[in-house]
Amino acid sequence: MDGRSGRKPRALTRQLTWSIIGIIVLFALIGSVLSFVGGYREASRLQDHHLHDIGVLVNSGKLVPATPTVMWPDEHDAGMSLIISRVSPGGAGTSTDVPLPRLETLADGFQNVDFDGKRWRVNVQTLQGGDRLVVAERSTIRDEIAHDGSLRTLVPMLALTPLLLIVIVLIVRGALAPVRRLAATVDGQDEVTLDSLSEAGIPKELLPFIRSINRLISRLKDAMAQQRRFIADAAHELRSPLAALTLQAESLTVATDPEDARTRLMALQVAVHRTARLVEQLLALARSQHAAAPARSLVSLHKLATDAIQDAVNVANAKNVDLGLKQVDDLQVDLDASAVTIALRNLVDNAVRYVPEGGKVDVAVVNREGFLVCSVKDSGQGVPDDQLVRITERFYRVPGTASSGSGLGLSIVSEIARRNGGRLVLENASDGFHATYYHLL
Question: What is its EC number (predicted)?
């Protein structure tokens, strides 16, 4: 057993909702990290610019510290937060009170310096007069400023994410609402109220699916209507022969003379045979209309043709009809033997029944250009041209026809041709009536 058949079906709404939420949360996290890192770096860059600008102001003389070394204490602890120290060439270097390495050990430019367990961001410049200037800021102060600035860029995004998720859930549910309405509509239908689904308000992406369902509903309606017509027609056609059988059986019970009883019994046997033939054709028509996938097998064309002739030989002998094979390909073909047998047998039976007494019926079965061609030609008078289009209708018989029949033979062949991708060609000719069945191989 397929293990997947026992799995509980997944809700499309839940699947879409959680998929979109997962993607948004993932991208929100990635965006938050990138925003935080970018904001942190931008804040650090701005602070480096401040340190550089201080050096520029001092170098230009626009900012003159009162003493060679100026220090700003940290508001949160006893340490220093900002230091500006200027040292002349040949001087003693930075003061020992400055919590930094000696200036001569530092190169010009920005650098991170660790001293006494604290990290500093240091900008060293050589001024125009040859003095060297160091502007240093505690890294912890810088980090706090950069961290706070980055968080302020994240707060709106993080605050709006839950609201965005709620909006997504509502949008997904609203977008799939037409599907739920369609499901309710379909569940409310039965064989009496089977109607096509409305396309009003349906998203464009679902229209092909809805139209496919509507085509399926149309086919179901046609099949159900065809089934109802078949049942009604079959009941109508069986009513008369069954009534005749009843009357003949009753007349047989009151017969006193042996010869009269024998005559009535023979008439009853003929009626039984005719009714059995009608039932057989009804069953064949039902199978041709509702057949499953064809079962293909290798079949001898010669055997197909001889079997069809053999089934009709008794009726042919009774009417003195010359029934025989005109042409048959002696080979085996892979096809649906049941369908071809029924079609060919009905064509031969139809020709033998309707050809005048002493007439001729020729049968040919050949393989031609991808089709199995079953041709049955009789020497009868044919069918009026205005009746050709109707003789494949069920239970239809040409007016004025004297021969017995149910009007189902050609209808069965036509239905088999339709289901197997073939065709039935009926035509009048100078030498009689021709019926040709093409079966797609």
Answer: 2.7.13.3
Tokens representing 310?
Answer: 């053999």
DSSP track, 234-280: HHHHHHHHHHHHHHHHHHHHT--SHHHHHHHHHHHHHHHHHHHHHHH
47 near 112, Cβ under 8 Å?
no
CATH number of the domain where residue 276 is located: 1.10.287
C-alpha closest to that of 366 among 392, 397, 382, 344: 344
Measured CA to CA, the distance from residue 8 to residue 407 in angstroms comes to 52
The alpha carbon of residue 333 and the mean position of all alpha carbons in its chain are separated, in whole angstroms, by: 35
Reported pTM: 0.47
Of 274, 290, 306, which residue is a domain's last? 290
Question: Which CATH number goes with the domain that contains 319?
Answer: 3.30.565.10
Same domain? For 422 and 344 the reply is yes
**pLDDT digit string (tens) for the chain, length 441 residues:** 444 445 555 666 677 777 877 887 787 778 777 777 777 777 778 878 888 888 888 888 888 877 777 877 766 665 667 888 887 776 555 555 677 777 777 788 888 888 777 888 888 888 887 888 888 888 776 777 667 766 776 677 777 778 877 887 788 777 777 777 777 777 777 766 777 777 777 777 778 888 888 888 888 887 777 777 666 666 655 665 676 677 777 777 777 777 777 777 777 776 677 677 667 666 666 666 555 556 678 889 998 899 888 888 888 888 899 999 899 998 888 888 878 888 888 899 889 888 888 999 999 999 988 899 999 999 988 888 888 888 888 777 776 665 666 677 788 788 888 877 889 999 998 888 999 999 888
- Starting at the edge strand found earlier in the chain, the sheet holding 322-328 runs 322-328, 360-368, 371-378, 432-440, 423-429
Question: 379 and 434 in one domain?
Answer: yes
Residue that has been written with the tokens 């060919």 in this structure: 344
From 238, 264, 290, the end of a domain falls on: 290
Distance CA 278, CA 411 (A): 13
Total domains in the fold of the chain: 2
Same domain as 253, residue 311: no
Phi, psi of 271 (to 5 degrees): -65, -40
Asked if the structure places residue 359 within a domain, the reply is: yes
Q: Give burial (CB, 10 Å; 0-12/13-18/19+) of 314.
A: exposed
d(CA 52, CA 34): 27
**Whether residue 432 is found in the same domain as residue 304:** yes
